[in-house]
Specification:
alpha/beta, Rossmann fold, 6-stranded parallel β-sheet, 13 strands, disordered C terminus
Length: about 375
């Protein structure tokens, strides 16, 4: 009797496995492929909150190796011992916070895929020279995945990686989940009256929800409307205090974290994003799939993501410009509908999750169109 081959084994090193874009994407991919892969997860900070999104029955193990903050060489030795002991077919690292795992894989123990989603607030305006140098050196023989065209340009021009090394795989969502009517009663859930401006974001400094509150304050001077902020994080207390100081607290709802926010999107009239730094935010795709017009700061790939009809409402990073975009979309219902419909069409055609699954499946199985050995050979020519 023929033996059934073991599923490919992937070791994923995350800076954290709290709920975030990279973690939610991994959960969606793992759930989609089920037991076709075996996963070992490492969270550098020991936080595994996003495991609640993984379906029961998956082949998933969790490791907690000894991590010594600020002691790179000791960590690299420890992580290399883990790689030798677990012998994954592929090591998958995520963002700068896991770079020590990439270092530990030299000389090569496992095929290495590095996924870079963007930068933290400390690099929102400018990358650190040491990190640029390290990425260029450590990732030179790895397969590097980026979800945004902006990051692709950085990988080529700043990190000086070979184009044969870099894969552009846009994020994707289940567009069907975001279509259809909402089951949320606005009157019962969000007091007040008027159209609803909504956002979904972690309440962290780089999301700059201060800008959104100031923009909303400007809009309220002329228009009756409400603001709903979905998400939680360390900035919540300060933001609630700012809403009170601006005398708009009765018009602002802090809805907290929601594991399944798709119904919330369908209850919004306009979606807002006020970040200082993004690359390819999931929330923009989700808002597009829900058929929403979007007022956003011009960061990352957002200008390339939205439909052409939405471009006039992607503005420089200021509360005044953001308020102008929100005002126009609130007043002009026809524009709101046209822009939202165009966004929905583009989300389905370019950002549906099936395309993302196919690309990551090929990458994790080793059937990527340009395998790692071919990349190495091409890089030597």
């Amino acid at each position: 009797m023929a033996t059934v081959p073991s599923p490919p084994h992937l070791l994923h090193a995350f800076p954290t496995f709290k709920v975030g874009g990279a973690q939610a994407r991994f959960a969606a991919i793992a759930n989609h492929f089920g037991r076709s892969f075996r996963h070992t997860l490492v969270a550098m900070d020991g936080q595994y909150d996003c495991r609640e999104r993984l379906c029961p029955g998956l082949l998933v193990d969790y490791l907690d190796p000894i991590i010594r903050k600020g002691r790179t060489l000791a960590n690299v030795r420890e992580f290399r011992n883990v790689l030798r002991a677990t012998r994954p077919g592929t090591l998958v690292t995520y963002n700068w916070g896991s770079v020590e795992w990439a270092m530990a894989n030299w000389p090569r123990v496992a095929h290495h895929v590095h996924i870079e989603d963007g930068f933290g607030p400390e690099e929102a305006q400018r990358q650190f020279r040491r990190r640029i140098w390290t990425r260029g050196l450590v990732l030179a023989r790895s397969t590097v995945v980026v979800p945004s065209l902006n990051l692709q340009r950085i990988a080529f021009r700043v990190w000086k990686l070979s184009p044969q090394r870099v894969r552009y795989i846009p994020n994707g969502v289940d567009c069907d989940r975001f279509s259809g009517p909402s089951n949320i009663s606005l009157a019962a859930t969000w007091p007040g009256s008027g159209l609803v401006i909504g956002t979904v974001a972690a309440l962290r400094s780089e999301k700059n929800l201060t800008r959104l509150l100031h923009a909303f304050h400007r809009v309220l001077a002329r228009h009756e409307c409400r603001l709903v902020i979905v998400g939680d994080g360390p900035e919540r207390g300060r933001l609630e205090g700012l809403a009170a100081d601006l005398n708009i607290a009765r018009r602002v709802v802090f809805a907290g974290y929601l594991a399944s926010p798709e119904a919330i999107y369908r209850a919004f009239d306009v979606f807002a994003l006020s970040s200082d730094t993004e690359q390819m935010p999931y929330t923009i795709i989700e808002a597009m799939a829900a058929g929403l017009a979007i007022a956003a700061t011009d960061v990352g790939d957002i200008r390339h993501m939205v439909a052409v009809e939405n471009l006039p409402f992607i503005s420089p990073r200021s509360d005044e410009f953001l308020a102008d975009s929100l005002r126009t979309l609130l007043v002009d219902g026809g524009a709101r509908e046209r822009v939202g419909a165009a966004n929905r069409v583009k989300a389905r055609s370019e950002f549906d999750q099936d395309r993302m699954f196919a690309a990551y499946g090929a990458l994790f199985r080793g059937t990527d169109p340009l395998p790692i050995d071919a990349c190495i050979s091409a890089g030597r020519r």
